[in-house]
Amino acid sequence: PGAATNIVVSDTHTAGISIVPNSATPSVGSWTPGLLGGQWAIASLPQGATATLVFSASVLNEGVVYNTARI
Questions:
Q1: How far is CA 30 from CA 15, 26, 61, 66, 69, in A?
Q2: Would you say 3 and 46 are in contact if contact means Cβ atoms under 8 Å apart?
Q3: Which 8-state DSSP code applies to residue 22?
Q4: Is the four-CA dihedral 34, 40, 54, 69 of positive or negative sign?
Q5: Closest to 61 measured CA to CA, from 14, 24, 19, 20
């Protein structure tokens, strides 16, 4: 296998969470925020490489909240 290309990670969360504006920091690629999450796009990632996305979030309501990432 070679490099992975055109990777899109979709991150969604329940309405009880709010991502802090301008807090998302991808190690590679770009982050585009959305209403209930956002998309992290990576043009190319070499074989064996890793990438991270870090962001801060505020919990708005009591109860169970979820954050899910899908490739």
A1: 23, 6, 29, 23, 15
A2: yes
A3: T
A4: positive
A5: 14
Split at pLDDT 50, 70, 90, the class of 1 is confident
Contact 4, 44 (CB under 8 A): yes
DSSP state of 61: S
- 58, 18 in Cβ contact below 8 A? yes
So what's the pLDDT on residue 47? Answer: 95
Distance separating alpha carbons of residues 65 and 5, to the nearest angstrom: 31
Per-residue pLDDT reduced to its tens digit, 14-42: 999 999 999 999 999 999 999 999 999 99
